[in-house]
Amino acid sequence: MRTAAKTAISIAVIFLAGCVLRIWEGARPAFTVTSLTPARDSLTACINIRSGMYTSRGFMTGFQYTMLTGMADTLGLDIGFSGVYDRKDCWQMLSDSLVDIVAVNVSDTVPDRYADEVVTTMPFMDYAWAVRKSDHSLLWNLNLWLGTVTGMPEYGLMVSRFFRSYSLRPYLEAGTMTDRISPYDEIVKANSILLGWDWRLLSAVIFKESRFSVGARSRRGAVGLMQVMRSTAAVYGITDLFNPENNIKAGTMHLRQIERRYQKMGFDSVNVVKFTLAAYNAGESRIEDCINFTLDQGRDFTDWETVAATIPMMAEHEYVEEADFLRHGRFRGRETVQYVRDVLSKYEEYLTVVATSPPWEWVR
Q1: Closest CA to 17 of 121, 131, 157, 140
Q2: What are the catalytic residues?
């Protein structure tokens, strides 16, 4: 009996280790630690942790996302995310059974009105997951998973991935090189091949868009690492923009679609990149207005710097009141011009201190 029990435990640990490794692969193995009551095939989580964007405290939202999806993989469940810090009242949502798990800081105090309704799991690092007290089997499963996974070497590697310093300042000051930009380097490298871009340039776009924060959201509704609109992602068949792989894939596919437009117009490779960046920020039809306005002024519309120098005129009534060909009317454009400059400046910084590798190594 003892031998059989040890064998069963060993098998379970092997399964769990495999699931930890699959956290990066996105697979969903059909392995259940114990049956959940009531029966369910999915979970919904809310990340109630203030992580900021590219802070010295690490990529906490991304870390929680990876932990939660890894746990769901192990339980053989789908998992969805209802929101991140400051967007919704996660405690009320947990109480109302709109979410099943709330990721919190260990130091957080459960609001008094919910103290008798919720309970937290064992802590991991400075965090824990809150669930309803009535959800006994889920709490048991979460504690079992956390207790097993946090003792594995793979967990230590994941913690290092999200909480190591990615600051470039030490390398810039010492004149040395690094091979890392963010926790999402491997995803970026794989997607950059689609564009034919240096992965460091695509990283510069993501830095400018979100500072590598998976929970970033704009006032206009753009979501995630590459600040993709849901309507844009839907064009490419992508719905889950909280998923880093899906978000970067959607953003990259949109960049590629924009890039082809300017390639077909015969722009040189440098200007293709600059116009692509401008259109990613302002929209293709807006940049088409800028091109047409520059052409109307008798200037070189194929050169981004010339177009950028012409754009300020588009904010003046005297220049645009007769320009009935402009679909969007006046355009101040300062943000877009600065956007292109910022992305290319960050790329130049990456070129200085971030080593690259041959394309065939990017997809390993």
Answers
A1: 157
A2: 209
